Amino acid sequence: MSETVKKVVLAYSGGLDTSVILRWLRDAYGCQVVTFTADLGQGEELDEARSKAEMLGIKEIFVEDLREEFVRDYVFPMFRANAIYEGTYLLGTAIARPLIAKRQIEIAAEVGADAVAHGATGKGNDQVRFELVYYALNPGIKIIAPWREWDLDSRAKLIEYAENNQIPIPKDSEGEAPYSMDANLLHVSYEGKALEDPWREPSESMYTRSVSPEAAPDQPTAVEIEFAAGDPVAVDGKKLSPAELLAVLNTLGGDNGIGREDIVENRFVGMKSRGVYETPGGTILFKARRAMESITLDRAAMHLKDEMMPRYAETVYNGFWFSPEREMMQAAIDKASEKVTGTVRLKLYKGNVMVTGRKSPVSLYSEETATFESDQVFDQRDSEGFIKLNALRLRLARMIGD
């Protein structure tokens, strides 16, 4: 390789791809490799990643539980924005990448590495998300993206390389699932291979976090979520940490067939991509937050926040978490969230999330004003002047036009 690299920190999962990358980095660059594996709630046994890295001769291995930081500092701030990409995607993969990349850069500084590496392909969004964070936090860092450099452009070549270099191949690599999968505490995504045909229905056996709506219980599940200053803090009266709370909602949602989405989305790199997602807890939380905002946010503040949402969602999707525009929008969103406090009651039933009640100590809802019965608060005669003033420009335009 043209550039000299002494030490590189690799985002390492322990799977076939990153295990091949680990060996390839040493072959191609002759450098020392440090592995970093993040526990974001993917549900895998991460000790296996450590053992495999040790077996492959790695001396510096980082395996870290980042679940609480992930939900508290990334998922919850994003949910304050009600961010949803292209009307359906709750950004489960996009929001995980900034934390992984940030910790990689921190570890690189700790161990004196001059490079970082990832296993994202040259066609996907993740390469952008990782590398924008790398450059934002360390402008001079060397980035190695093997999928853009090597000639191992097929699964068969990866397996051959692994066999030739005594790299253990996961038992399911030869007869692997007909899709790729990525998971964290917010969601599970499935894409590629059999799912590349947007007309092909996903197999029911694919799903790991939810039963089908048809198989969900015939009786609804009631749940109450309490919010404080914009973030959920309790479920059914029990105070929970951010990661604990999302895990509880995942279980409730999954048991009731909630949170499945089949999407064709526009990738940042330009192509359309079909993905299937399971976001049970996030789907419940999204619906609950909107209900909480409905009685605690001023109308103009709510509408302005809604106008910002598509831009915020696209910013996160494209990988610009550590950007001035996201931080500016976040400041406004967090300000609007200060009064989003109270409790929302929901009913979960066969894939549906239905709001059945909401209350708040700082509610802007006035039953005395809103009632259709007689009241002493609202003079209905005031509406005549209000309507005429708002109709003035329309009347003038019609009169002039005629």
Structure, explained:
By secondary structure, the protein is an alpha/beta fold. Among the domains are: 7-66 and 96-176, Rossmann fold (3-Layer(aba) Sandwich); 181-297 and 339-359, Argininosuccinate synthetase, chain A, domain 2 (Alpha-Beta Complex). The protein is 40% helix and 19% strand. The chain contains twelve helices and 14 strands. The protein has helices at residues 16-29, 47-55, 67-80, 97-111, 126-137, 155-164, 242-255, 280-296, 299-317, 324-337, 367-370, 382-401; strands at 7-11, 32-39, 61-65, 115-117, 142-144, 180-183, 188-191, 221-228, 231-235, 238-239, 260-266, 272-278, 342-349, 352-359. A five-stranded parallel β-sheet has the order 3-2-1-4-5, sandwiched between helices. A five-stranded antiparallel β-sheet has the order 10-9-8-13-14, covered by helices on one side. Helix 4 packs across helix 5 (126-137). The longest helix is centred in the C-terminal third of the chain and has 20 residues, at 382-401. The model has no long low-confidence stretch (mean pLDDT 93).
List keywords for this structure.
single chain, 402 residues, Rossmann fold, Argininosuccinate synthetase, chain A, domain 2, 5-stranded parallel β-sheet, 5-stranded antiparallel β-sheet, 12 helices, 40% helix, elongated
Task: Summarize the SSE layout with pairings.
Layout: E1 7-11, H1 16-29, E2 32-39, H2 47-55, E3 61-65, H3 67-80, H4 97-111, E4 115-117, H5 126-137, E5 142-144, H6 155-164, E6 180-183, E7 188-191, E8 221-228, E9 231-235, E10 238-239, H7 242-255, E11 260-266, E12 272-278, H8 280-296, H9 299-317, H10 324-337, E13 342-349, E14 352-359, H11 367-370, H12 382-401
Helix pairs in contact: 1-6, 3-7, 4-5, 7-8, 9-10
